[in-house]
Amino acid sequence: MRLSRAFLPTLKETPAEAQIASHRLMLRAGLVRQTSAGIYAWLPLGLRALRRIEQIVREEQDRAGAQEMLMPTIQPAELWRESGRYDDYGKEMLRIRDRHDREMLYGPTNEEMVTDIFKAYARSYRDLPRILYHIQWKFRDEVRPRFGVMRGREFLMKDAYSFDLDKEGAIRSYRAMMLAYMRTFQRMGLKAVPMAAETGPIGGDLSHEFIILAETGESAVFYDAGFETLDWEHSDYDYDDPEDLARFAALLTSMYAATDEKHDPAAWEKVPTERRREGRGIEVGHIFYFGTKYSAAMGLALAGPDGRPVAPEMGSYGIGVSRLVGAIIEANHDEAGIKWPDPVAPWPAAILNLKRGDAACDALCERLYAALGGEAVYDDRDERAGVKFADADLMGFPWQAIVGPRGAASGRVELKRRATGERQEVSLEDAVAKIR
Ligand code: ATP
Ligand code: MG
Ligand code: MG
Ligand code: MG
Q1: Where does this one sit in the cell (predicted)?
Q2: Which terminus of the chain faces fewer neighbouring Cβ atoms within 10 Å, N or C?
């Protein structure tokens, strides 16, 4: 992407309404633009990051054996009357009437719809177990939308739903999602801690929230310091082996961790004082096992192995995909701007041409840009070097390839690592090898 032709706008002023770093930086670096309270347009830079995060979520859901589908954003009210949640859900649900005066709503979650769809096709226990997921926009009319995309009204969520024959199977699905979630956040460079949680309007009796520790988080959290040094390898666990899944769940649940809602002072007392950690965190994911709550209410019954009808045991599993963009920035930034972790960076590098019009600088930048297959932001603007440095730091690409007249004359590029500030002078080939 050539910056001279790109729509990658940045702001010099810090927008007054933004209270936390990630919100300020998302506005200043031109990731999003608020179009109404809690509703955002994703600009090209923000969309690239969002898509990369979404893709990691997708790959790990697929790896865990979940299958992707796509349900609509608009749902009929009847489905929610069947489960009894239409009235319970309250003002967070955006209710709409169509031209025929039919009651519709913009979906805040999809338990009812997926249960209804599954019911239309599944016949017997042989159709179990299954896990379905989609990555779709949700709407919740939050009383106080704030912190930018962290608490939006319209937001992107990955939500998965599991159907199992019995409780044992449902717990296995739940554990598979625990493993998939820990791997998902690990791949994004985030340390997530699963914490015992309230089930809220989803219902059910087993639930964990995945929390990223951050001072600006909205939840108060209590956890064992063991989570800070938790050492585990994804490859040590096999999704097809129930023993492995149980071993992984035991690793995560053997140490104390709870949000304020579920905090248990008696259990907390048993954690050695030097290992007690209190702080704040951001909820980036939430998993629930709720048994037959929806299958029973909505008449989903399949022929069991003995021919008698059984209501599948279900669970649901959410990840805040758009919230993650904010959470990742909250965990990776400095005064100057964003420091994208490589796996989610919108582009791996910026090429900074410090002297546009200088034949050697122009030629070297063009060669580097071509060698990267155009997968970089090439700052070919007619701007001062200081402006280019500041914008590259703000937008936060993991690498900056700085090309000035002195280096260009001998074919050298100055490579700066955004995360550490480290600089080294390298050949074009070495620059390409490092950036790739
Ligand atoms: P919160 O406690 O932050 O209001 P929630 O518990 O209501 O979230 P869930 O129903 O558990 O949310 O939804 C699953 C995930 O969707 C959450 O873990 C969170 O990452 C994300 N999410 C929920 N509400 C929002 C929102 N308003 N804006 C952005 N992401 C959200
Ligand atoms: Mg909420
Ligand atoms: Mg919550
Ligand atoms: Mg939740």
Answers
A1: Cytoplasm
A2: C
Ligand 3 geometric centre to CA of 174 (Å)? 18
* Centroid of ligand 2 to alpha carbon of 38 (angstroms): 13
| Token pair for 229 | 């040094």
Express each pLDDT in 376-412 by its tens digit: 999 999 999 999 999 999 999 999 999 999 999 999 9
Rounded to a whole number of angstroms, the distance between the first and last alpha carbons of the chain is 16
Q: Whose CA is nearest to atom 8 of ligand 1?
A: 283
Which residue, judged by its Cα, is nearest atom 1 of ligand 1? 283
Closest ligand 1 atom to 200 CA: 6
Express each pLDDT in 193-224 by its tens digit.
Answer: 999 887 776 666 689 999 999 999 999 999 99
Model confidence pLDDT, tens digit, residues 111-123? 999 999 999 999 9
Q: What angle separates helix 321-331 from helix 21-28, to the nearest 10 degrees?
A: 100
pLDDT of residue 380: 97
Residue ranges in 67-136 assigned as alpha helix (H)? 77-83, 85-88, 111-121
Q: Whose CA is nearest to atom 13 of ligand 1?
A: 318
Ligand having the closest approach to the CA of 217: 1
What SS3 state is found at 329?
Answer: helix
What is the biggest distance separating any 2 CA atoms in the chain, rounded to whole angstroms?
A: 81
Residues with CB under 6 A from ligand 1: 140, 142, 151-152, 155, 157, 283-286, 318, 320, 322-323
Q: Which ligand is nearest to the CA of 283?
A: 1
CA distance 161 to 115: 9
| Structural tokens at position 265 | 């002072």
Predicted TM-score (pTM) of the model is 0.97
The best mutation among 154, 157, 328 to test binding of ligand 1, ranked by most ligand atoms within 8 Å of the C-beta, falls on 157
> Phi and psi of 263, rounded to 5°?
-60, 135
Residue of minimum CA distance from atom 18 in ligand 1: 285
**Cα–Cα–Cα angle for 72, 78, 79, rounded to 5 degrees:** 55
Q: How far apart are CA 344 and CA 326, in angstroms?
A: 12
When computed from its CA atoms, the radius of gyration of the chain, rounded to whole angstroms, is: 24
250 Cα distance to chain centroid: 24
